[in-house]
Amino acid sequence: MKKIIVIAILAFSNWAIAQEKLVCKSGIITFEASVPSFEEVKATNKSVTVVLNPATGEIASLALVKGFRFKVALMEEHFNENYIESDQYPKATFKGKLENFDSNSLTATPKDFTVNGKLELHGKTVAIKTVIKMSKSSGGINMLSNFSVNASDFNIAIPSVVKNKVSNKINVQLNAVLK
Predict the structure, then answer these.
(1) CA-based angle 28:33:27, to the nearest 5?
(2) Which of 35, 83, 110, 157 is deepest in the core (most CB within 10 A)?
(3) How far apart are the first and last CA of the chain?
């Protein structure tokens, strides 16, 4: 009988702890490193995981680098093999904290929150400070963020042959619905 009670308590406590965090496993990250007058350098990953602890404002995300899809297959191949080296660096992660976050203040109207954190990509970690727009809907908490990073900050070399066709400045957009 004691075993049943202990198991029930453990199962309930795991369920209760799991309820504290909001999760999205189908977040979308799009990045673009295009330059005018040349072919679009843009990719999207539709299976990004984002976790938010509404009690603390801590936020984390994980994107598998091989999950990024380009319009041109050769671009995707070069991205994985020559630029990101996805076999050696298979994931991109972000860990941060929302300033002055209060989940009770969220409404259907998007509200801006500043997030400070660290983005790890290609074996390098860079501090990021940006704004996340958040709102509440029947589907959960909607999150949208746009920011820019430099490829050179992550030791991603752009070969001189294509330096005029690929921007060092990479515009990143994250879109997720947390439940």
Answers:
(1) 5
(2) 83
(3) 36
